[in-house]
């Protein structure tokens, strides 16, 4: 094998395979996919009370602000001490949903038309029993009024937990969007 030239990073000379995590069964992957697809449909249909029913009591729903940093910058790209679009527990999520459903939410009258597409679902065991780490990507398209249309895309890292009745619930979500500056006028959607 040739040694790397000074301009060529050493990682290119000996690429490493990704660390393999124990694979999830096809049945579990299918169950998780159906959970995520159902969740997306509930959001698209504005069935927010049912959507909240998919959460655990200790949910942490986090969407940090993204900063465009150079690779040589040692600061973490995602830092919980910086600004976040969402940094919510269940109580804050209930407040957001309540606000969406009140007649005084003028920004939602007429309502936003949303479409979530979920893809690239990967499931791996978490450190705790009956919990799973789920990676996925999403595209959210929103229509407002007659001519406005906005799109958000990104990736998510979820922690799903199997609860006492055997069903899955969302215990944590980290959302990383591709935009550093939100191009929409508002963020009146869950992702």
Coarse structural class: alpha+beta
Q: Uncertain segments of ≥5 residues (pLDDT<50)?
A: none
Task: Provide the β-strand percentage band.
Answer: 35-45%
Element-by-element helix/strand order: HHHEEHEEEE
Distance between the termini: 46 Å
Q: What is the number of strand segments?
A: 6
What would the CATH topology be? Nuclear Transport Factor 2, Chain: A
Percent of residues in helices: 10-25%
What brief labels describe this structure?
6-stranded mixed β-sheet; oxidoreductase; Nuclear Transport Factor 2, Chain: A; alpha+beta; globular; 4 helices; 191 residues; 6 strands
Fold and architecture overview:
With 191 residues, the chain is an alpha+beta fold. The protein has one domain: Nuclear Transport Factor 2, Chain: A. 21% of the residues lie in helices and 35% in strands. The chain has 4 helices and 6 strands; from the N terminus they run αααββαββββ. It has a 6-stranded mixed β-sheet. A hairpin with a 3-residue loop joins strand 4 and strand 5. The protein is globular, with a radius of gyration of 19 Å. The model has no long low-confidence stretch (mean pLDDT 87).
């Amino acid at each position: 094998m040739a040694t790397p030239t000074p301009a060529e990073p050493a990682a290119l000379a000996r690429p490493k395979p990704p660390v393999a995590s124990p694979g999830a069964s096809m049945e579990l992957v299918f169950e998780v996919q159906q959970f995520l697809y159902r969740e997306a449909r509930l959001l698209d249909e504005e069935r927010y009370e049912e959507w909240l029913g998919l959460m655990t009591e200790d949910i942490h729903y986090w969407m940090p602000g993204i900063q465009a940093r150079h690779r040589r910058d040692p600061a973490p790209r995602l830092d919980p001490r910086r600004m976040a679009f969402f940094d919510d527990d269940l109580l804050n999520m209930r407040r957001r949903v309540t606000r969406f459903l009140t007649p005084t939410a003028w920004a939602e009258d007429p309502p936003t038309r949303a479409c979530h597409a979920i893809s690239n679902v990967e499931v791996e065991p978490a450190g705790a029993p009956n919990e799973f780490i789920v990676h996925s990507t999403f595209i959210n398209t929103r229509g407002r009024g007659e001519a406005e249309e906005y799109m958000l895309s990104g990736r998510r890292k979820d922690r799903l937990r199997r609860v006492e009745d055997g069903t899955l619930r969302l215990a944590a979500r980290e959302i990383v969007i591709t935009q550093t500056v939100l191009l929409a006028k508002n963020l009146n959607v869950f992702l």
